[in-house]
Amino acid sequence: LFDSTRTLGVAATQIRDLDASTMSQSVRGKGGSTIHDANVDSDLSSTLTSGAIATTTGRVDEYQLHSVIGSGKFSTVWKGVHLPSGKTVAVKKVQIYEIMDAKQRSDCVNEVKLLQSLCHPNVIQYADAFVENNELIITLDYCDCGDLSSLIKERGTAGVPLSEGDIWSIFSQLVGAVTHMHSHRVMHRDIKPGNVFLTADGVVKLGDLGLSRYFSSKTAVAKSMVGTPYYMSPECIRGQPYEWSSDVWSLGCLLYELAALRNPFFRDGLNYYTLGKLITSCEYDPLPGCFSDELKQLIAAMLQQDPGKRPSLRDIGVYAERCRLRCREITENEPPGK
C-alpha cells in the first residue's frame, strides 16, 4: 500500500461528479444539533456511570513494558506484551490525578468505557482500561509501521509524494473510522497525522479517540478549543461550540496534507493569531497540477468556513471509495513497465 513511487492523476471525466445537492449537506445532528463537551448521549452516560473502570492492584503486572513509543506532558505510551495472551499491545499511562479534578476523572473514565465499545477495523481498539497507582492505564492495538505523521515527513524529506491511489486508500479508511465513531455519538476532536497509525499489511487505524480534551486540559487555550491548531476548524478557532462537521474539516486538512506533504495552513514563522486568520479565511495554496480535479474538489468542499456547507461523511465516503476504485482500475490497466 505505501509503495508510492508514482503520482497518479485521474482525469475529471473519469469519475462522476458527486451530486451538488448531497455535497452541500452538513454532518450536524438531527435538527442542526451540535455536540458539546459530553460527547455521550445522556441515557448512555448514566449507564456507563454505574459500571466504572476498576481501581486495581497488581493488574499492571500482566503487561511487560518494552520501549517508549510516545509521550506527552502527562502521559506515556509503551510498546508492551500482555503476558497471559502473548499479544503485543500499546500501553498508555495517563497521570489523571495530575491533570483532572474528580468530575473530569469520572467523565474521562466513563468515556473510555464508551470507547471500549467501538469495534471497527480502522479504529484503534481500546482492549483494556483500569486505574492503578493513581494512573489511568489503557491498552490499545499496536501498529507496527508507526504513524502517518512520520510517513509524511519521510516522503517530504525524500521528495517522493504518495500516489493518488494510496491517498484515496488511506483517506477512505479514515472516513470509515470517523463515520463509525459518529454513529456511536463520539466526536474525535483531534484528527491529525500523528493520531493515524499504520500496519505492515496496509491497514490504517485512527487513534486517540475523543480524549484530547481531558488529556490536554491544563494546556488548552479554552475548553472548547481542544485539538491541534493546524487542524482546527474556523468555528473552533472562534471559540464556538464544536459541530459534527468540525471532524470533517480536520479530515479535509489531512487529505490536503497527504497530497502536499504539509498542512494547508503551515507557514514558516507563523504565530497563533496569523494561523487563526488563515484558517478562518480558508487561505491555502492550491495543490500541484499532477493531482486530479476530484481530489482538489473534495478538499475545497470539506474546507468551507460554514459547517453547514461541508459534505456529510456518508457522501465523502462514497466519493472517496469511487475514486479509490477508479485509481486502482487505471493502475491495473496500465501497460507493464510503465
UniProtKB/TrEMBL annotation:
Residues where ATP binds: 93
Keyword Glycosyltransferase recorded: no
The name this protein goes by in its record: non-specific serine/threonine protein kinase
Family: Belongs to the protein kinase superfamily.
Secretion signal span: none
EC number: 2.7.11.1
Keyword Electron transport: no
One Gene Ontology MF term: protein serine/threonine kinase activity
Reactions catalysed: L-seryl-[protein] + ATP = O-phospho-L-seryl-[protein] + ADP + H(+); L-threonyl-[protein] + ATP = O-phospho-L-threonyl-[protein] + ADP + H(+)
Organism: Micromonas pusilla
Gene3D superfamilies linked: Transferase(Phosphotransferase) domain 1
Alphabetized UniProt keyword annotations: ATP-binding, Kinase, Nucleotide-binding, Serine/threonine-protein kinase, Transferase
PANTHER family per record: CAMK FAMILY PROTEIN KINASE, SERINE_THREONINE-PROTEIN KINASE NEK1
Record Pfam families: Pkinase
Domain named Protein kinase: residues: 63-322
PROSITE patterns given in the database record: PROTEIN_KINASE_ATP, PROTEIN_KINASE_DOM, PROTEIN_KINASE_ST
